Amino acid sequence: MKEPKYWKRSRGAYRILIIISALMVIVAVAAIFFLKEGTTSNDENIPSNAEYTSVPSTSDDPDQIVDGIHVRTGLIEAEGMMAVVNNCTNCHSAQYVMQNRMDKDRWIATIRWMQKTQNLWDLGENEAIIVNYLVTNYPIINKGRREALSHVEWYDLKD
Amino acid sequence: MISTLGTDIVFGKLLPLDYVPLALQDPDPFKMFELDPEMVVLSDKPWNIEAKAHMLDDTITPNKVMFVRNNGIIPENIDLDNWSLTIDGESVSKSKTYSIQELKTKFKSYTYQLLLECGGNGRSEFDPPAKGNQWTVGAVSCASWTGVRLRDVLEDAGIKKNAVYIGYHAADLHLSRDPGKEPISRGVPMSKALQDETLLAYQMNGTDIPLAHGHPLRLVAGGWPASVSGKWINRISIRDKIHDGEKMEGSSYRMPCKPVAPGEKVPDEEMCIIESMPVKSLITYPKSGAILPKGKRLKIRGHAWAGELQVAQMHYSIDFGATWISCPVERPINRLAWQHFSADITFPQEGYYEVWAKATDSRGVSQPMLLPGWNPKGYLNNACHRIAVKIT
């Protein structure tokens, strides 16, 4: 006796569920339509110059690349970059890496020093990948005994 | 915390003890450290930030343009009421601990303007490049420091006859967050520790030291690499040998004992600890790049310093060192403070010029125009500073 009653009640519940779901689908489709309209019209107000595209995006992707630069760390996108990100930016900034221009031997010596004294782990096969990335993308620039003044911003001196 | 925020925290007493206010979590260093927007960030972990020459024009360096140099992570929770300084070590008569309040009330306070320059200031110019933060010219400051003499505190605890060195320990964290590691623990020989001007400072420029510069207690030993002026100090050990803390050994803050060729490998045992910084100067006005009409005179000014010594003479050149013209340099307000120079320059004709400044110390040693001796870590670049000028 109890079963038919149960079925009757649940059928009623299902009907309500179906109506709610249908309404949600309609609202969702309408929302997507209107929001899309909105973004399209906004796009027209955004200048499409290079400067804009180089602004770091607020994307949630931690490894987003904009104009060949890994946004989160500032490293140049090239073979081996993720090995550097994953092994070299846990303790210190990638700026520590990018500021320094060294040859293969000195990078390896620096890695050994970090392993001996700074809690850096064994890099395994990543070591060669990392060192190759660094010497390739951040090569030594010869400066001589004194460089010429460069990037002077000229201005009229008042007073 | 108040000194970092520069304001009282309303209802601050209701904050949980381990809560870091949002203002301190802000990753924007310019807001967090109240910096001039022109400051240059070399590294954000750890924070390393420098000024440009023209920003350092003030007689006394204000916080907003003072270079920030860190080896580790800035302490996250400073509990001023429970902060203590312990004097210990092999050569202390009796280990002793002081609260900040005790230091302030028990000992006489002194105020000095003290020159702090990073040992690696100017490193970016070395060829082949030297490892470390690539400082240009702006890792130098001369602020007004107030505190008690380290000597008074050491003597209160008692210094044994066999004392050689002091070494500081501080509350900053190692970058790996390993509590067993210190990011930096350096020191000075007893002769420097006992100087009148060597302070345990609790104020900078008349207010609590900003967090980035060592609140609540900083060792300030002017004229030496700024790394000996330890921040967030909670312990000082009187040692019976040269302090062997982090960044005292190996090649850290050391120069080759004998000059080496550029790029040469130098074994650790042939590296000697840097003590006094060398003679140096900086043109802080005008900013490089000034254009003047022909016939107008150019007034320049800047600062000069010479580590433990004084600057005795100041010269400038507008012809790349072919001729040097003497210009006045003031006496320092106190020992180990920078000195101010100025000059009034006329240019013979239109064209491109560089104004080079050269200081000479009380022993007759001058700044080189080219880079001084290459060294593996790129310390002590005291080559002449210069600015570009155009006469039209």
Tell how many strands the DSSP assignment of chain B holds: 23
Tell me the overall shape of chain B.
Answer: globular
Mean pLDDT of chain A: 79
In terms of quaternary structure, what is this?
Answer: heterodimer
Residue-averaged pLDDT of chain B: 94
Most extensive interface between two protein chains, with residue counts:
A-B, 29 and 38 residues
Order of helices and strands of chain B: HHHEEEEEHEEHEEHEEEEEEEEEEEEEE
Largest sheet of chain A: 2 strands, antiparallel
Question: Can you summarize the main beta sheet of chain B?
Answer: 5 strands, mixed
Which structural category do the helix and sheet elements of chain A fall into? mainly alpha
Q: Could you say which structural class the secondary elements and strand pairing of chain B correspond to?
A: mainly beta
SSE run of chain A: HHEEHHHHE
Gross morphology of chain A: elongated
- Beta-strand share of residues of chain A: under 5%
Give the uncertain stretches of chain B in residue-range form: 1-8, 21-25
* Count of discrete alpha- or pi-helical segments spanning 4 or more residues of chain A: 6
Number of helix segments of chain B? Answer: 6
Number of strands of chain A: 3
Instruction: Report the end-to-end length of chain A measured between terminal Cα atoms.
Output: 103 Å
- Computed over alpha carbons, the radius of gyration of chain A is 29 Å
Rg estimate of chain B, integer Å: 22 Å
